[in-house]
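Sat 14:20. Reprocessing the chain from the morning session after the first attempt stalled halfway. Input below, unchanged.
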Amino acid sequence: MYIRLLNEGTTVYRPVPASQITSNIYILNGADIYDPEVEEWEFVPGSRVIVEKRQLEKGEVLVAVAKD
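Finished this time. C-alpha cells:
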C-alpha cells in the first residue's frame, strides 16, 4: 500500500504497511516508521482508508485515496 507525501514539491508516494478490512478498505500501520518531523503523510498510522489501484513507476499498486 502506498500513501502520498505532502509538501514535497512534486508527487511522491511512500510504501506503508497496512491491514486489510474489506476489499478496498485498509487500516494504515507503520507507526514505527512514521516521523512527522521528516515526512508529512496524507494519512497517519491508524487511519482507516479507502484504496484504489494506481499505476506508479513500480507498476500497479494500491494507493490510499480517502479516509473511510
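The CA atoms of residues 3 and 13 lie 5 Å apart.
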